[in-house]
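Objective 1.3, modelling of assemblies. Example input:
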Amino acid sequence: MLSQNNMSRAQVAVIYLVLTTAIASGIAIYSSASTFTILLKTATAGLFLPLLISLIVSFLLDPVVYFFEGKKINRSLSIFIVYLLFFALMVLLLLVIGPPNWKGMMQALKADFPRYISSAIEYLSSLLVNAQEHFPFITNYDIAARLSSASQSFFGFILKETPRSAMRIGSLLLLVPLFSFFFLRDSRRIMRGLISLAPNRYFEMVLDIYANVSWQLAHFIRGRILEALIIGMVVWLGLSFTDIHYAPILGVVAGVSNLIPYIGPIVGMIPGLVIALVDLGVGGQFWWILCVYLLIAQIIIDNFILIPVLISKVSNLHPLWVILAIVMGGKLYGVLGMVIGVPIASIINIVIIAIRQHRKTFNPYQRYFTSRGKLL
Amino acid sequence: MNPFWDNIFHRSGYEQTLAYFLGSMPMFKMLDKRELAFLENIVHVRNYEADETIFNEGDIGSGMYSIRSGQVQIYNRSEQEPEIEQAILQPGDFFGEIALTASRPRCASARTTEPTVLVGLFRSDMLEAVRRHPAPSAKIMLGLNRVISDRLLQCSIQLEELKKQLIDSRKQQSDA
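Predicted structure (tokens):
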């Protein structure tokens, strides 16, 4: 720079000053950023789950609120009406079914769970003995012992975590209605405010992307939750034809695990099959239960009816991406991450497609080209 | 007019609102006050500097703009000469309404020539409004339709005239 000799001494001094300030402020920002992120982390620690659940709840209740709004009731009032209806429905359910016998259920599960696990392990080790005859090299790999220790620690974890999760559910019961009320009432205003921050040149693109993402997300979430609900009901109904215990719990497990594509239904099937094997043995009822899980719930109801009706409108990800999203989500946030990994991956997919559509707006060299790509 | 002694407050507050501005536009003339207030909630007000590009020819459009204040130049680029000016638009004018109903590429470029406030009405908001408040949205679309069909009518009349002129000039040529 100096050798070109086209800079005055004052300019060089200014450049030195700017550079040193830049470096110093960079170091300062770097050192304070780590404490800042830690602060941010502790401040938002417990908020992720309630915010997520209230977002989902507001996506679910939105159509109902709009139904009342169409009857010329203002928005806040119609949200209150929806809340009231929901509450009344809950009370009605409790009155009809009666309050669930938590204590009895817990004690029965406490007694039964080790029994199921031990017979599953017995069955597995008999399989193992059988396998060792054919493949002698797996003798020193003690699957049964590993499984029993893992299941014991898992059971202990459940017993220990139940009171804590009850506390958390209490705080969720307080926060979720509050958050989702504001999401339902003001989400449009909030999002309009955020979108209006976009620079003029990209405003149309941002608006289009937002409309697309919110539409697809709403359909995806509503579809998924409805699907899980229906699958859970079907499994519960199907299982209650047999003598199996815990049909409602197994229905809930099947429904929740159905939220995770591909892997979830298989995992959700295992407890039902284990209980059926242990209590009922291999017989007509066992095959019926397998049939309920596989043929009726998964193939007929889910694949032929629910997925085409509820989810096919949403842009489909390739199964490879879906599985990658599940694995990565699971590594980050466990089961919750597995459930929300797929919608997040599809949001990214939608955004990429929309940006590709608007790529002309993004092209930084367009002022040198005509609309057909020739140089001006 | 003396700015100091003149009563500059004679305009009522309502005449300065966005709803009043929208009601003064030809396509929204048949909306009543309530529907204008509804429309006010779907449009976006955007502020532009002088000489800022609003959109370029060939961009995927997503809605129409109307000018609240300022000035907008509409122009085409061709390969021989850099720009052909099509129109200079003044407050109250609107442009880009073709993209409101379907995502078509823009057929001309638009830029501001002075600091400008635009009121944008976009397709995604319109679609949502149609779904959720069908009655006022139908009126808005009807007004828009009327304006566009008026333009179409003007265009076809002009086309007829041009055709006539072409035929006449051909006749004169063949006579001569």
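The interface with chain B takes residues 66, 69-70, 192, 195-196, 200-201, 203-205, 207-208, 210-212, 357-358, 360-361, 366, 370-371, 374, 376 of chain A (CB under 8 Å).
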